[in-house]
Design a protein that fits this description.
single chain; alpha+beta; Alpha-D-Glucose-1,6-Bisphosphate, Chain A, domain 4
Amino acid sequence: MPVIRMQLHIHAPLEMCFDAARSIDLHMVSASQTRERAVAGRTTGLIELGESVTWEAVHFGITQRLTAVITEFERPYRFVDEMENGAFKRFWHEHRFIPDDNGTLMVDTFDYESPLGMLGKLADHLFLKRYMARFLLKRNICIQEEAQRQASV
């Protein structure tokens, strides 16, 4: 089961980073390359504990839907979203925020399992893990830019 971990320093207060990471609207901006949009559940604003969102996007030329629910929520330090329905066999995505002297360290952990047994493991090795890492990095940079923009206002 692949695990993608990344850290990004953000020159913005903890609360701004936390809220930017749970913004449905900002997620759609960060995933515009896949035409991702919220189509059910929470479709705008800031997602909260117990709420779900269904995303529709085009990945690898195929329109897909994925529903994730917020299963853990410790404002402003951490929240977790988990797949309820979608293309993965499962995923667990932790967003952690650690204050430091110059802002916030955002730590992102994406732990997933592909479907289709050995075929899914082969896809992970050949392209899927790299694809997901690039997707998450683009999203995290968008969070960083938005939180820093808000902090400078």
